[in-house]
Design brief:
CATH class of the largest domain: Mainly Alpha
Number of strands: 9
Helix content: 40-55%
CATH architecture of the largest domain: Orthogonal Bundle
Strand order of the largest sheet: 3-4-7-8
Structural class: alpha+beta
Strand content: 5-15%
Number of helices: 24
């Protein structure tokens, strides 16, 4: 079968059949992904983070194909499945891996909230996908819980690629099911290997995560990950009862895989400047809607194959120019000039130092020896401890963020859109997730959690960031401490 090789900086050469290149890759909806950045506005912090959903999709395809071909060489995995059935699963998996992100709107997850969910769900019904899930006995739960980009992707898969997929002898509804973590064929009673195909794209150890963890670390240059991808790929196996699993080969690297995911959140996507850049971009989309009366991102815009990061940035530029006195114009100028304000603390250590567990007493500055610059000298005397009162402060701050943004803006005498309180998102080791990662050994499987591996590891936790104009940081910390002590202090014993 004639093939095309595409050089990928992460995985080397990715080889695709020419039919897939012609029928999927070299089409307008898929090529649009070249202009949808994987990490939204994070390139304003890590300049190399310009990789897109396009190369990520190719990487997921490469890993999915490689892993499944490895599985097909394991007699235990292929038992009771015919060659034709395995070929069908592989064809479906390869197409699903390529198309799993085809529905991402501009700026990836940032703009999903602007998609009209009613319109989107109507389009999903029109594709016949709801009926297909019902007839397979799955019901509507997967579609109800799906993210907007997954639903939009399903619409595109059926409407844009349905004929091409059928020409490949692939069911477009089964491709959609894989994207959502299901196999309709398996649910209808086909061999258990069909379910494994879906798990390879949608599970705690899926190839989607495997690619983005590796790719985000490499492309940003963050260097927070030391992870043997080849060993992980070689460790995949499967079991009739547990489905997708890892052999004991993975024991030396599964911890790095889990730690790497968390490290990327902590130091890349949840870097304080990344949080601000992405929050600013999302706020600009909202302001665009306010000044123009139109949504910056629509279902029809994505389905028309043209709506990408560049198109929306141009809409923002034009609207900012036409409304020079608007909040949008101010935000746009800040975004293009990368004039990002200070955050009152960059990480948990600084939060504990400047707010402290002894919220009563002190001079109200939280021991901030940094004046108002970006440096973090941490000259307080609290030792970075994290006591119950600090937990109470964090909860109070994030639960009342809108109100406290207004309070801070009034106290600092600045417009409210120049004060933002945002909560970082860092997923901890979830015990349930550990239980969902099976390790196959000696003919049986036990979860990572059952083996007692990695379950007691402690990682950083989400913290609130407070962004205020330069020169106001010390005053902002004082205002927040005083407000907390006034509102909550007595109840916590602070």
């Amino acid at each position: 079968m004639p093939t095309t090789q595409i050089k990928d900086p992460v995985h080397g050469y990715v080889e695709l059949p020419n039919a897939l290149v012609e029928g999927v890759v070299d089409t307008r909806p898929f090529q649009r992904l070249r202009y949808v950045r994987q990490l939204s506005a994070t390139h304003l912090v890590y300049p190399g983070a310009n990789h897109t959903r396009f190369e990520h999709s190719l990487g997921v395809y490469h890993l999915g194909r490689t892993v499944f071909e490895n599985l097909r060489r394991q007699s235990y995995v292929t038992r009771d499945a015919t060659t034709d059935e395995l070929e069908e699963i592989q064809r479906t998996l390869e197409c699903a891996c390529l198309l799993h992100d085809v529905g991402h709107p501009p700026f990836s997850h940032l703009s999903e909230g602007f998609l009209d969910e009613g319109v989107l769900r109507e389009r999903v019904v029109e594709t016949g996908l709801v009926d297909a899930f019902d007839s397979a006995g799955v019901g509507g739960a997967p579609l109800r819980s799906a993210n907007p980009h997954e639903l939009l992707g399903c619409v595109i898969i059926v409407e844009e690629y349905g004929d091409a997929l059928r020409d490949f002898d692939v069911d477009p509804f089964e491709v959609c099911a894989y994207v959502l973590g299901y196999s309709l064929a398996y649910e209808r009673g086909e061999p258990w290997q069909y379910g494994v195909g879906a798990q390879l794209l949608h599970s705690p150890i899926d190839v989607d995560r495997l690619d983005y963890i590796t790719r985000d670390n490499y492309m940003t240059g963050a260097g927070v990950l030391s992870f043997d991808v080849d060993r992980m790929v070689d460790a995949y196996t499967a079991h009739p009862e547990e489905g997708l699993a890892l052999t004991e080969k993975a024991l030396s690297t599964i911890g790095n895989y889990l730690e790497g995911r968390i490290a990327l959140y902590m130091w890349v996507t949840q870097h304080h400047k990344s949080v601000y850049a992405n929050r600013l971009l999302q706020a600009m989309l909202g302001e665009y809607e306010a000044v123009t009366g139109e949504s910056p991102v629509t279902v029809d815009g994505v389905l028309a194959r043209e709506l990408d990061d560049n198109a929306v940035l141009e809409r923002l530029r034009v609207a900012a120019r036409e409304h020079p006195d608007s909040t949008l114009a101010s935000m746009y100028d800040r975004f293009r000039g990368r004039r990002f304000p200070a955050t009152c603390w960059k990480h948990r250590i600084a939060l504990a130092d400047r707010i402290g567990s002894d919220l009563e007493g002190g001079d109200g500055t939280g021991g901030d020896g940094d004046s108002d610059g970006d440096g973090d000298s941490g000259e307080g005397d609290r030792g970075g401890e994290r006591g119950p009162a600090l937990d109470d402060f964090t909860a109070w701050l994030t639960e009342g963020d809108d109100r406290l943004e207004r309070l801070l803006a009034d106290a600092l005498d600045v417009p409210v859109h120049e004060v933002w309180i945002d909560r970082s998102y860092v997923p901890a080791y979830d015990p349930d997730e550990l239980e969902d990662i099976p390790i196959a050994y000696g003919g049986t499987t036990r979860s990572v959690g059952d083996w007692g591996l990695y379950g007691d590891r402690a990682f950083d936790v989400p913290i609130p960031f407070v962004f205020v104009p330069d020169g106001t940081k010390r005053r902002a910390i004082r205002v927040l401490r005083e407000a907390f002590e006034r509102e909550v202090g007595e109840g916590t014993g602070a």
